[in-house]
Design brief:
Layout (H helix, E strand, L loop, with lengths): L5 H27 L5 H11 L6 H18 L3 H15 L6 H17 L3 H14 L4 H17 L3 H17 L3 H17 L3 H18 L3 H21 L3 H19 L14 E7 L3 H5 L2 H10 L1 H13 L5 E7 L2
Helix pairs in contact: 1-2, 2-3, 3-4, 3-5, 4-5, 5-6, 5-7, 6-7, 7-8, 8-9, 9-10, 9-11, 10-11, 11-12, 12-15, 14-15
Length: about 325
């Protein structure tokens, strides 16, 4: 039994909380300075550990340290140390999803960077298992894991994960995310040359885009992804004449999202939407697959001209911020 008066204990706790807030605020000040003073930022975060903070504060701080070290330094070993500590602390904590799954996602990315992909896959599978009640993180982690399998040409596993994602999004009435998973799966199946399955997925996704996506920004982003795949699909079948209307629509959609009056990501309603960054660079793999290369050769100048149009449309890999509705 403690002999310390309750009021003294409460005062000490309040004072300690004030120290946490002050150090975190100071660390953020140094991080956002111009130029950023990362050394001072790290020192502030490191000082916070001397107060023996609660588990949630400690886990969040380790995550912040890992993020900063990965973003601003080349000290991968130290970043790994902090992220692994953050995961160990947060894995079993309830109501701590953002820190828990952000840590898992970043740690998997770190493992990938140091060529320890099996560790990255194991980490994501564990996080996916724990995130089933959080549609946002569940979908994001499924996408991340499917990308790792696709990178390793494990297309069947990637396709299975994307099918799970589509089902999870549908159960949560996250229509936008459902379409994203359908289109991503179509892309994987196209690489595998399963054109019949691709057509079914494209038809399903296209109908949802036309009829069930009310937000104009969401609709346009999905439309671009859909049209990229449709162009590649028609090329795979050698249907050069059929592809031209889709290519024109694609060019118009890209012009729309690149226009000066198109709102920047930070201007969108973050209260209702969260961002899932997803880089659609696998279309290049689709476009260069052996089947399409043969079709190009047979079709001659017409397809060569079309190829130039596609090249002009995509001067660099297409990166789109995907907006998933969070119920």
């Amino acid at each position: 039994m403690s002999l310390q008066p309750a009021s003294t204990s409460q005062t000490a706790t309040t004072s300690q909380d004030a120290c946490y807030i002050s150090l975190l605020g100071l660390a953020e000040y140094f991080r956002t300075s111009q130029p950023p003073n990362i050394k001072r930022c790290i020192q502030c975060l490191q000082a916070l550990f001397t107060f023996n903070p609660p588990s949630k504060v400690e886990a969040r701080t380790h995550l912040q340290m890992g993020q900063i070290l990965m973003t601003y330094t080349h000290n991968i070993d130290k970043a790994r140390e902090h992220l692994e500590k953050a995961w160990k602390l947060s894995e079993s904590l309830l109501n701590f999803d953002d820190v828990k799954f952000d840590t898992a996602s970043m740690l998997a990315e770190l493992y990938k960077q140091i060529d320890q992909v099996p560790l990255a896959k194991a980490m994501l599978r564990k996080a996916i298992e724990l995130s089933q009640n959080n549609v946002y993180w569940h979908c994001k982690l499924l996408l991340q894991l499917s990308q790792l399998h696709a990178n390793d040409k494990e297309y069947t596993l990637a396709s299975e994960l994307l099918a799970v994602g589509a089902e999870s999004a549908d159960e949560s009435s996250a229509t936008y995310l459902k379409v994203l998973f359908l289109l991503s799966r179509a892309m994987i199946l196209m690489i595998e040359r399963k054109t019949n399955d691709v057509l079914a997925l494209l038809n399903s996704a296209g109908a949802i885009i036309d009829n069930s996506i009310a937000n104009p920004h969401q609709k346009e982003y999905l439309k671009v992804f859909f049209l990229v795949l449709q162009v590649c699909y028609y090329l795979a079948l050698g249907q050069v004449k059929t592809v031209k209307p889709s290519l024109k629509q694609l060019q118009m959609s890209i012009q729309t999202i690149m226009a000066p009056n198109w709102p920047a990501d930070e201007e969108k309603p973050l209260a209702k939407y969260r961002t899932i960054s997803y880089k659609f660079d696998s279309w290049v793999t689709v476009f260069k697959c052996p089947t399409i290369l043969k079709k190009r050769k047979r079709s001659g100048q017409t397809l060569k001209s079309l190829q130039l149009e596609v090249t002009k449309t995509f001067k660099k890999p297409l990166k789109i911020n995907v907006w998933g509705f969070v119920p």
